[in-house]
Description:
Helix content is 10%, strand content 43%. It is mainly beta. The strands form 6 sheets. Strands 11, 13, 16, 17, 18 and 20 form a 6-stranded antiparallel β-sheet that branches. Strands 3-4-5-6 form a 4-stranded mixed β-sheet. Strands 12-19-14-15 form a 4-stranded antiparallel β-sheet, with no helix packed on it.
Amino acid sequence: MKAKGRILLLTLFAVTYYAKAQNVGINTLTPDPTAVLDINSASKGFLMPRMLKAERLVISSPAVGLTVYQTNELAGVYYFDGTLWQYIGNRENDEWRRNTLSAYTNLSFSSDRVGIGTSTPSEDLDIRGYIGAENNFTVILLYKGNVLTINNNTQTDVANCESGINPTTFEANGNLQVKMIIRATDRSGNNYFQLRTHNGTTQTYPIVSTDSWTWAWTGGGETVTSPWKDWNAGTTPYELHLNAYSQYSGDYVNINAAYLVIRAKQP
Length: 267
């Protein structure tokens, strides 16, 4: 009878434990009803499985939500999201943050790289796509050489002051902004510049003579600058020409350099 009593007691204990195991508390008699396991302590922590990165990566068919602590390389907590291992870890090491010099820093390992548009950057900063920034621009040389005299009274392309572009080099849809900078060594009267473009079928003037050009004396001549102008060039390559004229007979301007500055259109 005593043996049977012990068996019955153990059976009742097992049934009771199973029922309570649906909501288990450790160091608490009142586990939170939303938790399967509620561990309570004011002096100790929970120690999850610890392993090396190589050991984590060879876990066969990890369950979604499987969580481990990696002890080497970028140490910290990792969980499996069903496709990839995601790092939780030390946020001091996984975010850029502002330092006292007002710079954003945090790539602490020599092998750290930043990829924009790519998950496998091949350089310290690897950008796959277009960059939109006020100070990110390209300078195209239209002319640099011996002094050219412009004294014609009709709009005419200046000989040998030309180049060409593919607008999609700068922005996917060819939405650009352009500015011209010209070096004038001498002038008299009123003189005007324009940018003429041609794609084989269509001619446009993204920069015209009536724009707010500035003439700035620089000691040995003047720097002539147009404002930034929007140019929705599209995706067709264009010829670029410096177009110029003098207002009256006897007016002239001498130039020895001309540049076109291009950037993606700014919002």
